[in-house]
Design a protein that fits this description.
Elements lengths: L9 H12 L4 E5 L21 H8 L5 E5 L4 H8 L11 E4 L4 E4 L4 E3 L5 H17 L6 E4 L4 E4 L6 H18 L3 E4 L3 E5 L5 H12 L3 E6 L5 H12 L4 E6 L6 H5 L2 E3 L1 H16 L1
Parallel strand pairs: 1-2, 1-10, 2-3, 10-11, 11-12
Antiparallel strand pairs: 3-4, 4-5, 6-7, 7-9, 8-9
Helix pairs in contact: 2-9, 4-5, 6-7
């Protein structure tokens, strides 16, 4: 059995100790892209690490809850993750669109409120805006239902295209009551009040979590990190895990534990399951 890595902070060590001592009270929260699934040039080709589902299926029965928290529609994360119908994952929850939509493995159904009208309005204007800004070939729009994402990873100069779009997309979002969330060469337009921190806090409180682990890789995971910090101040231990990359350093600076991308996350989940077995 591989040894568990030691968190670099005292709060992180306390969070890990609480998980090991009281696993039946633990909530394991996980981002999808960049955390359970490697980042790829085409998000439609993203798939969970091949060992992610076996690791989750081994760990999930030993804790209170496993929740995948993602900006993707939940049914897309379920399909790309291969989460449906897996023994051991009967109580998995996927909180998609930053918690606005919820998929429960127990029922296989999605629950969701009506969509924000600003997304449809922005969707109509966005192609013309990209043409006017001249962000360049390779910049493209990902349709996410309750949100829209503009990717620059395929552009000739991905970072320059990303920077050129920040202002125009912020103006577009503001006109329609939306916000812009920057990520790893992606800018997402979505309604306010939707973030991974809100989703994580709501789920932790709903299940009465006694400790919380959250793993993420991108700027959109910072609200979830802040949520764990909030829970810590309320006396609920937590562990912050960064699925490391060279593209985003902010999470690594905030994390209690940095692992080597999705492979490192899977190794951590697998080792936790073995320790709790």
């Amino acid at each position: 059995m591989d040894p568990l890595p030691i968190p670099q902070t005292q709060p992180g060590r306390e969070g890990l100790a609480a998980l090991l001592a009281r696993p039946r009270t633990a909530l394991i929260g996980l981002d999808f892209d960049g955390t359970l699934a490697p980042i790829v040039a085409d998000p439609e080709q993203a798939r969970a690490h091949p060992d992610a589902v076996p690791a989750l299926a081994a760990l999930a029965p030993r804790v209170a809850s496993v929740a995948v928290i993602t900006g993707r529609p939940p049914e897309v994360a379920v399909r790309y993750g291969g989460f449906a119908g897996v023994p051991g994952l009967e109580h998995l929850t996927v909180l998609g669109h930053y918690g606005a939509e919820r998929w429960d493995a127990a029922t296989g159904t999605v629950t969701a409120p009506p969509p924000h009208p600003g997304v449809a309005a922005a969707r109509t204007e966005l192609p013309r805006l990209l043409e006017r800004v001249g962000a360049g070939e390779g910049t493209w729009i990902e349709e996410k239902g309750r949100a829209l994402a503009v990717h620059t990873r395929r552009a000739a100069d991905p970072q320059a295209a990303f920077e050129s779009l920040r202002g125009p997309l912020a103006d577009l979002a503001g006109r329609h009551g939306l916000i812009v969330e920057p990520g790893r060469l992606v800018l997402e337009l979505r309604p306010p009040g939707m973030d991974k921190g809100v989703a994580l806090l709501d789920h932790a409180r709903a299940i009465g979590a006694g400790c919380v682990v959250y793993a993420g890789d991108d700027l959109g995971d910072l609200p979830a990190f802040a949520a764990v910090d909030k829970l810590r101040t309320d006396g609920i231990p937590g562990l912050l895990v960064c699925s490391g990359s060279t593209e985003v350093t902010e999470l690594a600076e905030r994390a209690d534990l940095v692992v080597n991308g999705p492979e490192g996350v899977v190794d951590l989940l697998r080792t936790l399951a073995a320790q709790l077995g």
